[in-house]
Structures are given as C-alpha cells and as structure tokens.
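Lab notebook, bench 4. Still working through the backlog of constructs that have no structural model yet. Next entry is a single chain of 97 residues. Request: give me the structure tokens for it.
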Amino acid sequence: MKEVKAEISHPEKAERGSVVQVRVRINHPMTPDNFLEKMEVSYMGMTVLTYRLTPGISDNPTVGFYIKAVESAPIKVTFISNKGMVFEAEEMLKVQG
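Model written out:
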C-alpha cells in the first residue's frame, strides 16, 4: 500500500466571524478489511466534529465541512482506521479582522 496522506484545503485567509468551507482528502484504499472508521476535526485545540466512516465510502475520500473563523489557529484532522492506524494532517487557518 502506498503512503497514506491527508491534505486539508481552505481559503488562504478568512474574516473573523465568517463561515469557511474546509475540505480534507485522504489517499486510502477503503477496502472491506482496511478502511477508515473515524475522522475527528479540532480547531483552536477543541474537537469540533467527529465523523463515523464505513467501508462503503469510495477510495481516496474527500470530506467537506464548515467552520466559523473565530481566530487564527490550526485545523487538525485525525483519521483512525479499523486496524488502529492513525493518520493526521494540520493546516493553519489565518483569520483577519
């Protein structure tokens, strides 16, 4: 299996109080015996959402969600597979205004 890598994308800058779309793409095969079962997102050091995933999701899934831009802080995404493997990505959200 090739290296599993997650990438986070969002606007380069966000106005304080605005709602921004965040997208996360992870290259993972999502087979019935090796799949991602949980995705957790934290912002400003707090968990802001948790997704339960199933093997029915396509290979290399992209997941989108929205976050209210409160202050400049990292968005951290953690995926956990059914085999207990952990994959993480982090990207700074820059807030102005």
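Notes after review: Residues 43 and 75 are 5 Å apart (CA to CA). The first strand starts at residue 6 and ends at 9. Flag for follow-up if needed.
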